[in-house]
Design a protein that fits this description.
The chain has 254 residues and is α/β, with parallel strands linked by helices. It has eleven helices and nine strands. The protein has one domain: Metal-dependent hydrolases (TIM Barrel). The chain is 46% helix and 13% strand. The strands form two sheets. The chain has a six-stranded parallel β-sheet with strand order 3-5-6-7-8-9. It has a three-stranded parallel β-sheet with strand order 1-2-4. It is globular. Bound molecules: fe (ii) ion. Fe (ii) ion binds next to loops. The site of fe (ii) ion has 5 residues, from loops. Keywords: Hydrolase.
Length: 254
């Protein structure tokens, strides 16, 4: 019995070691209370932040949705919420570093925000986390990328493995890279959380070294639970441990 618990513990430590040593910075999550489909209140925000800290993260750049019809957030709303949460984490004695940007849904409204420079980019030089539609591809996705790059932004494409319409034409992912985008893996894709086809696509993108960054896309406690379970999957952990994600390099001490 004792050895069973011991081995469970070491499996969990494996994911903690990976996140703490090889990732350190989470660049995609929904931790600010009441402004998107992530944390509903400050208590949950604190619980999720503590959970991510316990999983090994040293810094969290949280990314509430901005999608005008559903989540009409603004840089001001996000900065105010961030200040509230930072204060609460200090009161609670949590010592994870917190910052915020946004996960931008790419549509006409986003183009308008770009034109008016009403963007909350990453705290480090001009990165934008960009989300594409899930159901069908944007007809002009190359033009949308160009709109960002010509203004000096580097697009980080959120969870490309989840865009099923490109599973049979993976050259679309290479095209995004050629256009100057970085690709971000949702870590739970490799755990199988989003389904086997998305897991397969994530494995393909890992094998072909097309990802640059990794993120949790954490919305709620269930995601934390699945993240812990990932530590038990030997093959998947091996793939992650052998990959060079740039989270630390790009976002830790700058
Ligand atoms: Fe997200």
């Amino acid at each position: 019995m004792f050895s069973f618990f011991k081995s469970q513990q070491s499996k969990q430590n494996r994911i903690i070691e990976f996140l703490s040593n090889q990732v350190a910075v989470d660049i995609h999550s929904h931790l600010l209370p009441g402004i998107d489909d992530g944390s509903p209140d400050i208590e949950t925000s604190l619980l999720l932040i503590e959970g991510l800290q316990n999983m090994g993260f040293k810094k969290l750049i949280t990314t509430p949705h901005i999608r005008m019809e559903v989540y009409p957030n603004t840089p001001t709303i996000i900065r105010e919420k961030l200040a509230d949460v930072k204060k609460a984490t200090l009161q609670k004695g949590l010592n994870v570093e917190l910052d915020a940007s946004s996960e931008y849904y790419i549509d006409d409204n986003f183009t308008e925000l770009l034109q008016n420079e009403e963007i909350i980019p990453f705290p480090q030089p001009r990165y934008i986390l960009a989300e594409y539609p899930m159901i069908a591809p944007l007809m002009n996705f190359e033009q949308r990328v160009f709109e960002m790059t010509k203004r000096g932004y580097t697009p980080i494409i959120a969870h490309p493995e989840r865009y099923r319409y490109w599973h049979k034409t993976p050259e679309a992912f290479e095209r995004l890279k050629d256009l100057g985008c970085l690709l971000q893996l949702n870590i739970l894709a490799i755990e199988g959380y989003y389904g086997p086809d998305i897991k397969d696509c994530a494995k393909y993108l890992l094998k072909n070294k097309l990802y640059d960054l990794i993120g949790t896309d954490l919305h709620h406690e269930r995601h934390l639970g699945r993240l812990k379970k990932l530590g038990e999957l030997n093959k998947e952990m091996q793939i992650l441990e052998n990959y060079n994600f740039k989270n630390k390099q790009l976002f830790m001490d700058v």
